[in-house]
Amino acid sequence: MPDSRPQLQSARTLHASRALLPHGWAEDVRIEIDGTGTIATVTPDAPSSGAEIAAGPVLPAMPNLHSHAFQRAMAGLAEVSGAGSDSFWTWREEMYRTVGEITPEDAQAIATRLYVDLMKAGFGSIAEFHYLHHDKSGSLYADRAEMSKRILAAARTSGIGMTLLPVFYAHANFGGVAPHEGQRRFIHGIDGFERLMAELGPACAEAGATLGYAFHSLRAATPEEMNELLAGLPENGPLHIHIAEQQKEVDDCIAWSGKRPMQWLFDHMPVDERWCLIHATHADPAEIGRMAASGAVAGLCPATEANLGDGIFEAVTYRAEGGWLGIGTDSHVSPSVVEELRTLEYSQRLRDEHRNRLANGPHRSVGRDIYDAALAGGAQALGQPIGAIAPGKIASLVVLDGDDAFMDSARDDAIVDRWLFALGDRAVRDVMVGGQWRIRDRRHEQDDDINAAFKTAIRNLARR
Ligand code: ZN
Fold it and tell me: How far is the CA of 242 from the centre of ligand 1 (A)?
């Protein structure tokens, strides 16, 4: 897709006393950014004359590879125990209740505030796995892309980098089971979904967003439908799918096909670098090996997976086999780079009763290795030139607070470890996306308006 971002901004130069470059930390780095928001040159050991001075260490902003923005509205509201054993499936009932009430205005206000919060916590771009398509009755809006365009509007107001993934969702379970009432706002046939995609091509180009698409899951799309869409839709752009999040899903898939979900996927679909497999929690050793060999990205959402009681991804084995991974905030119980990466590492420690599980070898920083891994996997999963401070990449950067005592004395990889394992979200001070400052000194230019609209949306949802 041609890059149609407006070329109105002026070129700028940023000088960082320390910056994380593709080959490691460098000092006195001069970063020149052109009028399209793309990094033109990166020069270490360079003077600061005429440049803006970064207020602390500079790193690539983190891509967020999995989001359902509307779910932010119900974060914290599904933490009351029910009559029986609570699981993902009882949480999903609460989610359907929220979904039944959301208007386009609500969706936009919720997503805008969420995207600002995510940038304040170190994310620079997001893949929105968007399945809330239709009105409350399940009918098309006058504009079939109404809800998708609300997401694009939220990205534009907040300034976050967007990969939009409209989701094909047609069934309630394996074998093409008819959808139920709670799913009415999600459902498409092939023809309707292809029309939505056709409409969103120009809309995304105009918004400077990347367009991919998603199959909701093997529960929600039949093999015939997946093959038809793969044949009919453009072959570029990311392709995501939820898979093997829950043991029940594994059991249902075996009952349907005789195979585990990931085993079925690798046997029947052309899984390669284009694909991002969201969760992949219940993967056996053979499936871990096939996923690592495929070049697909494992889309991990550790905070949501912990909240929902999904299980623990086999990240140690997967990394040892060279697998790609990235992080997403999914249901947004905690919009934070720190919480995702920390939960990823800590879940492995708790399971294995050992420390420092995801370092790439002896004497290496866990923080640096998982940050690098999630940058690379996230960039691949979003299909955007991001995730590195290098010429040709979009200038999406995080500036940590150099005034903080931890940061003031930290050098090189200790900067990442102090951020992820000590300071937390408040380490993030400024965030640039596409060459423009979106967060400055922990504030967004439109914080007041965005907060007011969000408060109205949450109030309205509580009343309905
Ligand atoms: Zn999800």
Answer: 6
SS3 category, 31: strand
**DSSP letter assigned to residue 9:** S
Q: How many whole angstroms separate alpha carbon 147 and alpha carbon 128?
A: 12
Phi first, then psi: give them for residue 152, nearest 5 degrees: -65, -35
pTM (2 d.p.): 0.97
pLDDT in tens, the chain (464 residues): 444 455 568 899 999 999 999 999 999 999 999 999 999 999 999 999 999 999 999 999 999 999 999 999 999 988 888 777 777 777 788 788 888 899 999 999 999 999 999 999 999 999 999 999 999 999 999 999 999 999 999 999 999 999 999 999 999 999 999 999 999 999 999 999 999 999 999 999 999 999 999 999 999 999 999 999 999 999 999 999 999 999 999 999 999 999 999 999 999 999 999 999 999 999 999 999 999 999 999 999 999 999 999 999 999 999 999 999 999 999 999 999 999 999 999 999 999 999 999 999 999 999 999 999 999 999 999 999 999 999 999 999 999 999 999 999 999 999 999 999 999 999 999 999 999 999 999 999 999 999 999 999 999 998 87
The alpha carbon of residue 290 and the mean position of all alpha carbons in its chain are separated, in whole angstroms, by 23
The three-class DSSP label of residue 161 is: strand
Angle between helices 190-207 and 146-158 (to 10 degrees): 20
Residues with CB under 5 Å of ion ligand 1 are: 330
For ligand 1, the distance from its centroid to the CA atom of residue 11, given in whole angstroms, is 37
Rounded to the nearest angstrom, the distance between the alpha carbon of 301 and the centre of ligand 1 is 8
Task: With beta carbons less than 8 A apart as the criterion, state whether 332 and 73 touch.
Answer: no
Q: What percent helix, strand, coil does the chain show, rounded to 5?
A: 40, 20, 40
3-class state of residue 117 by DSSP: helix
| Pairing verdict, β 161-168 and 123-130 | parallel
Distance 256 CA to ligand 1 centre (A): 22
Tokens describing residue 323: 């697998």
Contact status, residue 143 vs residue 189, Cβ threshold 8 Å: no
Q: How many angstroms separate the alpha carbon of residue 329 from the centre of ligand 1?
A: 9
The three-state secondary structure class of 49 is coil
Catalytic residues: 279, 330
Question: Can you tell me the distance from the alpha carbon of 376 to that of 387, in angstroms, rounded to the nearest whole number?
Answer: 6
Query: Read out DSSP for 341-383?
Result: HHHHHHHHHHHHT-S-TT-SSTT--HHHHHHHHHHHHHHHHHT
